[in-house]
Amino acid sequence: QVLLVESGGGSVQSGGSLRLSCAASGDTNSTNCMGWFRQAPGKEREGVAAVFGGGTGLYYRDFVEGRFTISQDIAKNTVYLQMNSLKPEDTAMYYCAASPFPGKCTMVVGTRYWGQGTQVTVSS
Fold this sequence. Notes:
Blueprint: E1 2-7, E2 10-13, E3 18-26, E4 33-39, E5 46-52, E6 57-60, E7 68-73, E8 78-83, E9 92-99, E10 113-114, E11 118-123
Parallel strand pairs: 2-11
Antiparallel strand pairs: 1-3, 3-8, 4-5, 4-9, 5-6, 7-8, 9-10, 9-11
């Protein structure tokens, strides 16, 4: 069993920054891949970023590359998402995700565990 708890969401103006955190507890061997997804109202859940392989593997969607940075504190079983230059289209519920298999938390179908989400709202 793995529990994922997100924090750090909030409301910011366009161009602002937020840092999301996801703390994992339970079977740490089941969190070899950890990442972030987001889902806006009426939209499908989509991958944002992920880290796996002890930090050797990184994944970013095109729309976040250059603005967002994912990082991991392995000792604390925590993954972070630093989001800069936020845009209104970034508004969504952001979910933490984990999988026992490297690279498998980059897609919804590959994700084993989910957090409850943290809301990010960006105003123009």
